[in-house]
Amino acid sequence: MTPEWWRTAAIYQIYPRSFADASGDGVGDLAGVTSRMDALAELGIDAIWLSPFMTSPQRDAGYDVTDYRDVDPLFGTLTDFDAMLEAAHARGIRVIIDLVPNHSSDQHVWFQEALTAAPGSRERARYLFRDGRGPGGHEPPNNWQSIFGGPAWTRVTEADGSPGQWYLHLFDSSQPDFDWTQREVRDEFLDILRFWLDRGVDGFRVDVAHGLIKEDGLPDYIQPEDADSMGGEAEDDVPYWGRPGVHEVYREWRALLEEYDGDRALCAEAWRPTARETALWVRPDEMHQAFNFPYMMTEWDAAALRTVIAGSLEAFPAVGAPATWVLSNHDVIRHASRLALGADSPQGHGIGPLSPGKPDPVVGLRRARAATTVMFALPGSAYIYQGEELGLPEAIELPDEARQDPTWFRTNGERYGRDGCRVPIPWEAGAPAFGFSATGASWLPQPAEWRALARDVQRDDPASTLSLYHDLLRLRREESLASSDLEWVDGWPMHVLAFRNGRVTVIANTGSEDVPAPEGMRVLCASGPLGEGVVPVDTAAWFIAG
Ligand code: TEU
C-alpha cells in the first residue's frame, strides 16, 4: 500500500446500524459489514470509516458511549470486530473508527459515580458540573443551548434529595460533556486510542473535534448581532467551539499515533464555517485531515463551488495536508435531495414538516450525480456516505412513530431530525428488507420505491448511479486525479464550473441552459446523457483530448 494513503483515499462511511444485518434483528451489525466486504472492494474504495459501534444505550445512535473498549451487543462482539478488520485488510481496505471524546453516555460508570458523589469531588470534576444561577440556583449556569434544541444544562438531585448542581451537555441530556482540562480524562482517552491502535485500526474520525475544551469560566454565549453592537469579537467566537487548548489534546494524540507503524490517521469532525478555520485542526503534529463541511454545505452553483474549492485548495495544502471532499453523511439531508432544496431550506440535522417545499427527486438525483462527478475529479481525499452510490434520496415520509433521532424529540417535531438519511440500504430488490436483513426486519422502514434502487438492479445497468460511482472511482485512480493539481479553465459562462486536472477537463453545468461541450475533446465519463455536442443543465462530464 502507498505511504500516507489518506492523502488520496476514497473513504466510505458505514453507518453500522443501517448497512447490513447478519443477526436478523433489524439492526445492522459488524458481521453484516464483513459479509458485504466484497461489495466494498468491488466499488473501488480505499478505506471504510465506521460510525460508533461501542457499548451504548443508543440514545444518540451510539454517539453516547458507556464502554469505549467494547462492542455493543447490538453490533456484535470484539471477535466480530477483529474478523471485520481482517476481512477489510485482506482486501487492501483500511479501517477508521469513530471516537466520541466530547461527551460520554450518562450511563458511563464515571457519570454514574459523579451523580452520587458530592459537589467538588474528583468524580464530578471529570464532567462539567456547576451551581445554578439566581435564588436557589434554579437557573442554568449560563445561556448555552443544546445542538439538538433546548438548554445545554440539566439539574441533578443531590444524595440528600435536594435540588443540586447542573451538568453541561452540548447535545442530548444523556450525553454529559467531559472536562478536558482534567489530566485523568486525557489519560483515559490516550489509553482508549492505544486499545484500538493495538487491535490494528488505521485511524480515527474524531467526533465534535472542535468541542472538548470550553472557555474558562463558561461565560454566556453572546450572539454575533449582540457582539457586533457591543463592538465585540469575531463573528464566530463561540465559547464552546474551537478553544485554543483543544490543540494541545490533539498534539498528544498525534505523538501517540507516531509511535505506531504504518500510517494511522486522524480526521477531525469540526464544523467550521470556512475551509481556513477547518484547517486549524490539521497540522503536521495534530490531525491529518478534517472534513470539508463548507464544501458539503455549498449549493449547486458554479460560482459558489469555485469559491469554496479554491479556498479549500489553498487552506489545506498550506498546512501540509490534502483537501478533503464530502457531500453527505449521517447528520445531513442526503445530497440527492438536498441539492434540489432552495438555499433558504434548513440543511443540517434534517428538514422539518414546516420546511418550504419538498425536494424534486428527479432534479435532486441529476444534481447529485453531477456533484459527485465534480467531487471525484478534485485533488485530495473524498468521503462517501453509504447509499449515495445508489443515489438514495432522503426518506422524508417516515411514520412519526418510527423516528428515533433526539433532534425530533427535543424540537417537539419541529425538525424531523436525521432518521431520513439513516434508512437501511437496499441490496437485493427481490429479498426481504431488500437484502438488508435475512428476516426482513428493518429498524426504520425502507420506502417501497427503493426496490428500483437496490444494488443488484443497479449493478447490471451501465447507466445506473452505482455504475457511475464505479467508473468515477476507477478513472480517478487511473488518471491519478487525487494527487495532481487543479487549474481553472476560464472563458465559460458564470453558471459553468470548468477546470483541468492532469489530462482531464471537467465541465459542470449548474445553470438553466445547455452549454456547448469543449471542442476537440472526447468524453471520458458523464453524470448523465450528453446532447449532441452539449453539456445539458445539471450535468457534469470529464473530457480528454482526442
Ligand atoms: O455531530 C456533531 C454535530 O452535530 C455538530 O458538530 C453540529 O452539527 C455543529 O456543531 C453545529 O454547529 C456529531 C455526530 O456526527 C452526530 O451524529 C452526533 O449526534 C453528535 O456528534 C453528538 O455526538
UniProtKB/TrEMBL annotation:
GO BP terms, alphabetized: oligosaccharide catabolic process
Gene3D superfamilies: Glycosidases (3.20.20.80), Oligo-1,6-glucosidase, Domain 2 (3.90.400.10)
Domain Glycosyl hydrolase family 13 catalytic residue range list: 13-422
The organism's place on the tree of life at top rank: Bacteria
Similarity annotation: Belongs to the glycosyl hydrolase 13 family.
PANTHER family (UniProt xref): ALPHA-AMYLASE FAMILY MEMBER (PTHR10357), NEUTRAL AND BASIC AMINO ACID TRANSPORT PROTEIN RBAT (PTHR10357:SF179)
This protein's name: Alpha-amylase
Organism the protein comes from: Microbacterium oryzae
